[in-house]
C-alpha cells in the first residue's frame, strides 16, 4: 500500500511533464529532479518516474524521427522544383519556373508534418493527464508506445 504522500508525489511527477509548455526542456528537468529526490521513499514514485521519463524520451525520439524525415524531403522538393541560373558577374542566382503548381508537393508535406506533430502533442497531453489520474488512484501507469530506456 502506498502512502498519500507517495501517491501525491507520483501524481506530481506525471504532471511535471506538462512544464514543457512553460519552460524549455521542463518535461525532462522537473521529472528528473522530483524522481531523483523521492525515488527511495516509494515504489510508486520510482515506477512513475521511470515511466514519465521513458515516455518523454520516446516522444522526443518520435518527434526527432518525424523531423529527420520531413526536413530532407522538404529541401528536396524545394530544390527539385527550382532551376537556378548563376549570373556570371557574381554569386547571385535567379529563381526561374517557380509557380504554384510546383509547390503543391511542398505544401502537402508541410501539412502532413504539422498534422503529425500536432497529433503527437495532443496524444502526449491526453496521456499525461490520464497517467496522472491513474497514479492519483494509486495505480502504476505505463504509457503506451513508450520505449523502456530506464528499467
UniProtKB/TrEMBL annotation:
Record carries keyword Transmembrane helix: yes
Membrane topology: Multi-pass membrane protein
Record localization: Membrane
Keywords: Membrane, Transmembrane, Transmembrane helix
Primary localization: membrane
Pfam family, one: MamF_MmsF
Lineage top rank: taxon: Bacteria
Keyword Transmembrane annotated: yes
Ranges annotated as spanning the membrane: 12-37, 57-79, 100-133
Protein name from the UniProt record: Tic20 family protein
Amino acid at each position: 500500500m502506498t502512502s498519500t504522500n507517495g501517491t501525491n508525489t507520483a501524481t506530481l511527477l506525471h504532471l511535471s511533464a506538462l512544464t514543457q509548455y512553460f519552460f524549455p526542456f521542463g518535461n525532462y528537468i522537473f521529472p528528473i529532479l522530483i524522481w531523483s529526490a523521492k525515488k527511495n521513499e516509494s515504489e510508486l514514485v520510482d515506477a512513475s518516474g521511470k515511466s514519465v521519463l521513458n515516455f518523454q524520451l520516446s516522444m522526443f525520439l518520435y518527434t526527432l524521427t518525424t523531423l529527420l524525415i520531413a526536413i530532407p524531403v522538404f529541401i528536396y522538393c524545394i530544390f527539385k522544383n527550382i532551376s537556378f541560373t548563376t549570373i556570371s558577374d557574381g554569386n547571385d542566382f535567379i529563381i526561374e519556373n517557380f509557380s504554384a503548381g510546383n509547390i503543391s508537393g511542398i505544401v502537402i508535406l508541410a501539412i502532413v508534418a504539422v498534422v503529425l506533430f500536432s497529433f503527437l502533442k495532443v496524444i502526449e497531453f491526453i496521456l499525461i493527464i490520464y497517467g496522472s489520474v491513474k497514479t492519483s488512484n494509486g495505480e502504476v501507469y505505463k504509457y503506451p508506445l513508450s520505449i523502456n530506456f530506464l528499467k
